[in-house]
Amino acid sequence: MNDVTAGSILTTDGIPLKVSLQKSERRNKIRAFLLVLPLLVFILVTFLIPIGDMLFRSVDDSYINTVFPKTFEKYKKWDRQGLPSEELYKTMFFEVKEGSGFSIGKATTRMNYAKSGWKSLLKKSKRKFKKIEEGPYKEQMIAIDKRWGDIEYWKAIGVMVDPRTAGYYLNAVDLKYNVDKEVVRQKENRRIYNHTWFKTFKVSVLVMVFCLMLGYPIAYLLSTLPLKYSNLLMICVLLPFWTSLLVRTVAWMVMLQQKGVFNNLLVMAHIIADENRFKLMYNETATIIVMTQILLPFMVLPLYSVMKTISPNYMRAALNLGASPLHAFWKVYMPNSVPGISAGCMLVFILAIGYYITPELVGGKDGQMIGNWIAYHLKTTLNWGLCAALGAILLGVMTALYWVYNKLVGIENIKLG
Amino acid sequence: MALPAYTTTGQRIGWYSFLFYCGLVFFFLIAPIFIILPLSFSASPFFEFTREFMNLEPEAWSLRWYRQMVGISSIGDTTVVTDKWMLGTRNSFIIGIAATFLATALGTVAALGLSRPHMPFKGTIMAILISPMIVPLIITAAGMFFFYSKVGLTHSYLGLILAHTALGTPFVVITVTATLTGFDTNLIRASQSLGADTMRTFFKVIMPLILPGVISGGLFAFITSFDEVVVVMFVGSVEQITIPKQMWAGLRQETSPVILCMATCLVALSIALLTTVELLRRRSERLRGIKLRN
Q: Is the ipTM, as predicted for this complex, more than 0.85?
């Protein structure tokens, strides 16, 4: 410490106070960080890396390149005018003939996304190629199946040459590559995702609006009632929050089905005839009703914590100055509760767009959301690239909203009861 | 809340219709949960209130579904033992308790770090730690399914426990951080100046004060694991039945009223947990000298 000026304050060890303070603060920072580190690493390994790994699948197209490496290498030289040369046919022939049945089977599933027909073509060829001993291969291959002579099939390979693809993302919004790698719209009967995205947003917005309509009054009531009543009523809000999601879904099935409680009551009260029972189950209506009830506590709790801080004197002052109760509410109370409204709406919307269980159980065909398609591709069609692309888009939307929420409310202000 | 004497008739009508509306909303929140309780004692194999059941006829009420739930059921003269529900209960508790302990330990330590005034990048780190609560379960499940199968953690208890721990930690972090706001750091200095080392200070001074928050967080983590079905379906094996997984299977395939019995038990459990957490919250606020809610 030679450059210490004479005027600076020194600690007892002779180090300038500023340096010593910085040192101790840095030590404190490191100590605080070390406490957080185990959980951070844990979340990284068990949660974030798996999700990142999945998202990578949405652009990954490298598998097919490992099955037909030589063919793809030679393919790049083809001018895409007229059928490929004997050379390319020969390479393809040997890679199909000598490749393992398993990896070719897996690759053909991918090739079928580029052009349907590849799967059956390769399956047939794999069987028949065994009989062919020597060249020229081109004619023999076309003789086995004339699709080998169809330039469209060869062109379709071009879509898969690049080990990174945006194809799954295109699929997720009802677009696709044609054989010339141009972006075109999906066929009419295969356009399902834009509709589903729209529905997911529609349902989430409706659920958010209903939650606000139902949640605002009760949050207001809870924040104005004396403690002994409000604590009791608070239990009514918290109990659903603590009750298993599946239990609540079962309960709604009991309530809403054709011979369920709701319809029975209406029939008993002679409001509707026995044969005109409402169809409230297994459709979009059911999804909206059940999700509203399930997500309502997430609206009430942030609203309540904001309303708690609004002094009743504001309203009294407004009334005193001659405002009608409605006018006073609209001009004084409402603006004060806006932080609660935005927090609650944001939280409900974020949770709603990713819902899977409830739409799956009560939504029927009509009430399915994007989460259900992700699950469908994950376990039924095994089109994991598309599954990951849908997930990535959903996650992107959520992250944007989460970021806004963080700016708006501050993530550390989330409260649980 | 009594209305003041000067309110006009119009205001009275407005106030009472407001109360009526709130009553309906509370009914909407609570009624579905309690509607299943009586129905679980019905003898009918469908989810419906039969006329005989409503007229309290003894033969329409029965405990047969509860008997089936604990593994005893009779078809004709033979007694069939189906132990899926009990197996599920056992698995749910094993996974839930293990995940709770892990999540509580990791979450509490992290919350202690996050509450320090010198914590760098606090906002970002908090957002990362809370993310398992926000990311849709189906995306989490998909990610874990791919990654855990690569490292050989699928179809094992360890995989499920790690997955549920990740899902439960945000709750612990949130509740413990909340308990630590307003924590008097002079207590730590006092303890250290009296000669206690870090561990002793932690267990004798900090821990007793934040214990209510830690337990609440742990209970949140437990109920999260106990209620989780999507990750269990994708990461667990077919034989790894948990309660929610069995309920899911029941709802999709066989729709048996046993589900209602299990649901009743789960409602009882959630009431018990909720009561515990509420009592702890009040105790914690009293300990920290914060005024009770209101």
A: yes
